[in-house]
Amino acid sequence: MSGVLVIMEQRGGAWSRMSWETLVAGQQLAKQTGSTVSAAVAGQGIGALANELASKRLDKVYAVEHQLLGAYTADGYTSALEHLVRNASPDIVLFPHTYQVRDFAPKLATRFGQVLISDTIGFRVEGGAPVFARQLFQGKLNADVKAGGPVPHFASVQAGAFRADQLEVGTAAVETFAPALSADKIRAKPDTPFRESTRAVDLTAADIIVSVGRGIKEKDNIPIVEELAQALGAELAASRPICDSGWLPMERQVGSSGQTVSPKVYMAVGISGAIQHLVGMKGAKTIVAINKDSNAPIFEVADYGIVGDLFEVVPALVEEVKKAKL
Amino acid sequence: MKIIVSIKQVPVRDSQLRIDAGGRWIQENDLSFEINEPDAYALEEALQLKEKQGGEVVALCLGPARASQTIREALAKGADRAIHIEEEDLTSFDTLGMAKLLAKAAEAEKPDLILTGLQSDDLGSGQTGVVMAEILGLPSATIIMAVETADSGIRVKRELEDGWFQNVEMPLPAVLTIQSGINKLRYATLMGIKKAKTKEVKRLTVGDLGVTSTPVAVIERVYLPQRTKQTQILDGSAREAAAKLVEKLKFEVRAI
At CA A214, angle to CA B4 and CA A292, rounded to 5? Predict the structure, then answer.
């Protein structure tokens, strides 16, 4: 077919939100390269999902249907999609950069002697081929990466890099694709996904969140930000390393592996703003960043920034907040 | 159980990065380096598995001569020996090229388990372990938060998004990419540091491994990201900046 093939993600019949953003990326890439875009969804009993896709502006929809795709396994998905890609022969295969894609897409690319250009944030077209932009050093720098070698090329798209509301509608034909799979080639035996416990802390309900990161240096310093949260009537949250170290409970973690929040005010204290954190909070209406490194990626999303030592700024802020509330 | 841990040396986290003259990578000469953090957790997990099961932990590192410092630290923490694939210019390899080198060196050891961090803090492509598994024809699982042995091989806890997890069983040998926070990192003891000096570090070159790979995904240009938002920087002393922020929060955001 040449053109772009977008691999959508679903679990238990529900779409991963990021799939729609990736589909928008696919539509825009096809437009700019003067080619077509198709989409595929893999699983068991996915007819309804494929029909939903058929109402978008796509060349074709592939329903990759097999009983061995009911539960996700890296072996099953890699083999099924390898079969599909060999048949459909796209120039570019796009994925949403989800945890599941990270689990199998590098295997898939390897089977074609290719490298997955992962976690891309945009692209430009040069000589009819895309050059992808992606982040290096936890977002401190960007790089343009060009896919070389024979097609197909593979890339995954970062959450929030494209807007799902720009999706163009249309009509597409659905083709059911039966991949060649055998149970003995699937080595992993997955259990049903689970959640550790019901969350005692619901950060999503908070109007104001004060969130703390590595800049706090040690556990004994946590009360400094606790006091700020108290003064503001805010919930206290943290980036992943703080919860990993056990300085605050996991249920207070904001980011891709924790909670996704969109409060009125999100105050990031000593948080550099790695993408895993940003995806969990960039929907906040107002973002405040306090960080000693003026190049920290958190300032890219902040509305207000203070470049300085949090151990001086936060106590001053507590006093000023108290004064303002008198 | 024989465990290989693939570790990488990266610039320390707070480094002030400067783009080099070629515009395709960073200036490395004035930076300090350390073990890639997720790899430190992979090493710790390997050491804990060895303490429970017995066996051997071999640290495997692809990097320039300076990486020998990171290798020594891994040995001081308890790795039994190390393999250093010494290569000064890693920018001429893409993920597939690097994974081929690591896989070739690992294969000769016939390990039961290969562990590595889920991603590196420099390139952040998050795929070296998975690609190694595919090259070696081994099963793999990513973003792992617990590892235990099972009748059939191993049982691991995969982290999914949004607070979800999943247990998966798979046969050995296998490759796992380890998530930060899976365990509590140990410090090297004085005794460990002393012992490390006598431990074997096998040095290999790219030529020794006989791997050829033409890079397919090439960095064309490295640059500073453009800000997507206009950030109002509130300057002055800590007190002045704090006062300005409270003013904004009160009268513009109306949150106080």
Answer: 130
pTM score of the predicted model: 0.91
> Which uninterrupted H or E stretch holds A28?
helix A17-33
A286 touches B: beta carbon within 8 Å: yes
Side-chain half-sphere exposure of B154, counting CA atoms within 13 A: 23
pLDDT digits (tens, 9 = 90+) for A161-181: 999 999 999 999 999 999 999
CATH number for A203-325 (one of 3.30.420.40, 3.40.50.960, 3.30.70.80, 3.40.50.1220): it is 3.40.50.1220
The Cα A296–Cα A284 span in angstroms is: 18
Residue A27 pLDDT > 80: yes
- Domain coordinates in residue numbering, chain A: 4-185, 203-325
Interface pTM (ipTM) of the complex?
A: 0.93
Residue B57: inside a domain = yes
| Chain B from 225 to 254: CB within 8 A of any A CB | 225, 227-229, 231-235, 238-239, 241-243, 245-246, 248-250, 253
A residues 57-76 lying closer than 8 A (beta carbon) to B: 74-75
> Does A162 reach chain B within 8 Å, measured CB to CB?
no
| Residue-level pLDDT at A1 | 57
